[in-house]
Amino acid sequence: MSANALSPAADSDPGRVAVASAYGRFEPRAYLRNNYAPPRGDLSRQDGVGPWKLLCLAQTFATGEVSGRTLIDIGSGPTVYQLLSACAHFEDITLTDFLEVNRQELGLWLREEPGAFNWSEYSRHVCLIEGKGESWQEKERQLRARVKRILPIDVHQPQPLGAGSPAPLPADALVSTFCLEAVSPDLASFQRALDHITTLLRPGGHLLLIGALEESWYLAGEARLVVVPMREQDVSESLLRSGYELRNLRTFTMPAHLQTGVDDVKGIFFAWAQKKGAV
Question: Contact at 8 Å (CB) between 171 and 202?
Fold first, then answer.
């Protein structure tokens, strides 16, 4: 779902080249309409996917265990909702995406430019469930202040951010939403991408991963993107292979009223994992 893909010129794997070609037609605004405007963006229904994702993130950050100085969001796509609870716990946040159109979309919101996507309903909802008495405007100001850079990334490279990245490495935490399964032609490629991003995380650091379950395609305007169908077992086994301790794994079944024809997703997973090693 996040458009974080591989440059065809940099790779000879036909599956990843096909993924990269499809993402050349990715339309951020179509993706946002499909997934973050009603009905999927209706946060008033507690059986909705939006409230579920925000609650998973808010509850995890509320433990106080996922904190530090630096956080990298892997394959941000054109979205920022995934960092609304994170920004109180990290002072240096890096956004990343392969596609320039998504990095541009993120920049519009950070600079509060006319035409930027309106995330205020998400900000309001996070403030409500966190219960700290914070206004949504304060929440957004804090997130904007703590995002220090927007960088290109390629999760299929051993150094996803390239050599000499300005992001402070290794990071204390990683967040990634709807990225790895959406840019990997098969489970082996997903595993390698997970291994690659894990190099960006310090031992003892935390990874919060949200993704699609049993999805094989989704639409973003003219682009029809292929997704590697993931099962709950695939998620947990992949994290273990990449050297994580699985702290929490939750799943959400997509209700009928949210099956809108823009994809064939059956559910969503939320995983909290901690990289093994000295803290």
Answer: yes
**How many Å apart are CA 1 and CA 219, to the nearest integer?**
9
- 50, two tokens: 């939006």
The amino acid at residue 39 is: P
Helix (H) or strand (E) holding 139: helix 136-146
pLDDT confidence bin for 15, thresholds 50/70/90: low
Instruction: Report pLDDT for 7.
Output: 47
| CB of 230 closer than 8 Å to CB of 214 | yes
CA 132 to chain centre: 25
Sorting pLDDT into bands at 50, 70 and 90, what band is 18? Answer: confident
Question: Which residues make Cβ contacts (< 8 Å) with residue 118, sequence separation at least 6?
Answer: none
Q: Which residues of 126-146 are buried (b: 16+ CB within 10 A; e: fewer)?
A: bbebbeeeeebeebbeebeeb
Gap between the Cα atoms of 25 and 75, Å rounded? 17
Any residues with CB less than 8 A from the CB of 11 and at least 6 apart, and which? Answer: 17, 20, 156
Question: Starting at the edge strand that comes first in sequence, how are the strands of the sheet with 244-253 ordered?
Answer: 147-151, 92-96, 70-74, 171-177, 201-213, 267-275, 244-253
d(CA 196, CA 207): 13
Which phi-psi region, left, alpha or beta, contains residue 171 (left: φ > 0; alpha: ψ -120 to 50)?
A: beta
**Cα separation, 19 vs 25, whole angstroms:** 11
pLDDT tens, residue by residue, 167-176: 999 999 999 9
Structure tokens at 182: 């959406």
